[in-house]
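Quick one - first record:
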Amino acid sequence: MSKEFLKRYDDLKMLLEEKYDMKSALTHGGKFHADDVFCSALLKIIFPEIEIIRANEVPEDYKGIVFDVGMGAFDHHQMEKELRSDNVAYAAFGLLWREYGSFFLGEQAEEFDRRFIEPLDQCDNFGTKSELADIIGDFNPGWDSFKDKEECFCEAVTFAIRILENKFEYYRGEEKAQKMMLSRMQDGDGTILVLDRFIPWKRALINSDYKFVIYPSQRGGFNAQGVPVSEDTNNLKCGFPAEWRGLEAEKLQEVTGLETLRFCHTSGFLLAGDSRTQLRKACELALEQQEMNN
């Protein structure tokens, strides 16, 4: 983890310790759900030794942070729920993230809320189907089980911590990739970008004029890919020609006239080969055909 992120964590730790006694946190007892489990996981990432107390009432003199119970700042059981700008109601995890999410993901905190937390909040508030919420819920002891409820809760929190840490690492990697891509895009021709190493490129190129990207393949050789028109679709700005699709090596080389090509995906989004130069030529041919068809 970079110094920047470690500093964010230190700043959050200091902020929370100024407001609460962070030796413990309190949430509801009984059956646990994704909402209270992920709140607990989030706090434990910053305070690994924090004790999560599960009780159905909040003691009057309690000084720790309270969530998903007690009708406080991080509870959502009031009749009038707080709503996001897109009118999705907050649950406890969303409320906690709204307050402190920027310390974890900076400018990406809002996107993480929209993509990851909103579906969990909707599930908790309205029973909307969520596979992740079901997976967390399955940590509860079954009706005929003799497992200890608190041990099961701890197992669920440990699992949720791993999920969050993996997600945070992914988002931070995306942020790093975005900065690297912006630099490389400035050196490219604006249409076909050739990378000297694989970098997660999609987010940067979708919002650009680039139509193809070429990069080293983990299987050896190189790949060329068409750039999608948006993050929410597989439609491409320009795909490889229909007559290339599904072809391999000899047949593909015969059709294209490029002797180092290996394979074209049946959907036309990807082309594999042994030469950056010939993959670039293949992209140029695809662009020429698109122009002719238009």
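second record:
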Amino acid sequence: MNGLWQDLDAWQPQRLDALLTGDFAPRANALIHRHAGIRFDWAKTHLDPAAIDHFCALSDAMGLDGARRALLSGKMVNPSEKRAAEHSAERGVGDAESVELAALLHGRMRALIDAIEGGAFGEIRHILHIGIGGSALGPQLLVDALARHQLRYDVAVVANVDGAALDAVLRRFDPATTLVAVASKTFTTTETLMNARSALTWMEDAGVADPIGRFIALTAAPEKAMEWGIDETRILPFAPTIGGRYSLWSSIGFPAALALGWDGFAQLLAGAAAMDRHFAAAPWRENIPVLAAFADLLYSRRMGAATRAVFAYDERLRLLPPYLQQLEMESNGKGVMADGRPLIGPSAPITWGGTGTDAQHAVFQLLHQGTHLVPVEFVAVRVPEHALDGEHHAALLGNIIAQGAALMRGQDSDDPNKQYPGNRPSITILLDRLDPVHLGALIAFYEHRTFVNATLMGINPFDQFGVELGKAMARALDDGDGDFDPATEALMDAAFGSSDFDGDLG
């Protein structure tokens, strides 16, 4: 493998304007692909035939085909925890027994949704979903992107242990018409259970009859939920082989299934399954998640890009960048390979981004004229959902097209302040429309892209031990038995102990 990375070091990128000179057809055929109603365009990246040849050889050397088959057939791909990663089974692609179990658990979730809609819980107008990390980011993305204009239920997702987050929701919800979903894979997550206890107290203080009866558990540890007090009939389990940041397809997606209706949730799964089948069958040069990973590694490993920027040019996808931050950085932000050896070269880049066109007036200065190389990813939708004049959407799409062209071409000027170097890469992902099918395919694409990146770097993307140390030290601090350094002790005293702060900031 070392030799293959050294071969990449020897490869010299051409300028983007040179790559786009002459007959465009061969480049378009190689780097622009459509699948599941989505157009993926890498034409404005530095990928060229030599780079693609290199990455295809790397894919073969790193056993990507075997890893892909193992992932999609329910084999062990998480060696540190000795587990499979079976999120695709939730979409009907995987080990037959796991697919059958997922279908049964989906049926259980659908039956509970039917009961809620049938009035078994009384009048329900508000859904409070409590989770953190993957147990919150995925459902929040789905609800915000797909159900914001539907009035079936008022859904709020609370993750932050900061009481201000929960308090803001409780102030506008009516406890008499609220249903609470508590999402935690282990049902031991400190922040989630603290928020859940506060929500339960809120209902008790309001005089709600049987407040615990308004709680639903979404978990891979049903026995823990029962110990907490939730009746077995209101527990929606999912398999322990479903990782948190890959779990929105399982019962963790309950609030989205409730808000969208079951048909909408089923369409989400179908869209993801279409991308699963493409990933399973397409050769490397035509495989959309694989090509995306080739571009990612080209910039992070060869061209020194420490970050990757994602801009959603659709307000409905405003939560996509934070969703991808967890998916990509928690999966591939590792300094050790799956076999325990130190990672060779940089790990996953820092994922960041925002919403267009807002971001153009905030961060695009750096992208166009700053000293950092930042690959930019634009995500847009051809058909808008709003009823305003079409000039709004035309202006939006015009901006995304112009920004990509400007980043690539740049501009010469006698005034150095107005000099644009150009040669800045961008990727454009264009959905035909934003509906459950297309969003399901898009999210599955990002999952498989993350997996391919991990495989080619030799990383296990399905554990996250890096988040555990801070949690352990927080517990030690809370218990009062931690052994902390002097600077931390001083900060603890300032935060929790005596202080001479009198509120005067003058």
